[in-house]
Amino acid sequence: MSVLELAGRALAEESARFAGLGWMRGTSGNLSVVLDRDPLRVAVTVSGRDKGELTSDDVVVVGEDGLTVADQPHPDKVPSAEAGLHARIAAVSGAGAVVHVHALAPVVAAEHWPDGVELRDLEMLKGFGRAAHDDLVTIPVIANGQDMRVLGDAFEAGFRADTPAVIVARHGIYVWGDDLRHARHRLECLEWLLRFRVETRLVGEERGVR
Prior knowledge:
single chain, alpha+beta, L-fuculose-1-phosphate Aldolase, seven-stranded mixed β-sheet, two-stranded antiparallel ribbon, 5 helices, 36% helix, disordered C terminus, methionine biosynthesis, metal-binding, EC 4.2.1.109
């Protein structure tokens, strides 16, 4: 089995997992893995397919600009419109995989804290790669848009090597890691952290505490 076939199988399996969690509703969301770095080659899930039903063939290879490269077995397939941001994140962060889902908690959190969502003193932060205590973690929030170059610039402007995530306001969240499993573990922990942040804020509001 080729490297691309293995990547396609892994992407399909992870997509099905996220779809089962309700984080990739309809055909939303996209995942990617880096195949090569010189030049940058990224395998990205295809556009317009139910992410719970992908096969190992539902993958497209793009270059650093997010555009489909010619030397691949699926030149007729269309990559996600957000492939350019995946490639930018991979290039800047050095990550081996990027996952983008439409989980609700990150989007709600960005509504409350549009300048960045602060997290600290929570045990689950260890699963996100940060300390459980005395470590202020700020998840950056960038404005939504359809131009991946603009989104990429906004991501890069706020990039911190120790914070492997960015929320796109009223859209979704991107999380990255060394590979798909690593990125998934980080996302699972971060989704919990953001849900905790939102729900404890709402409880505070009910009690008259801001």
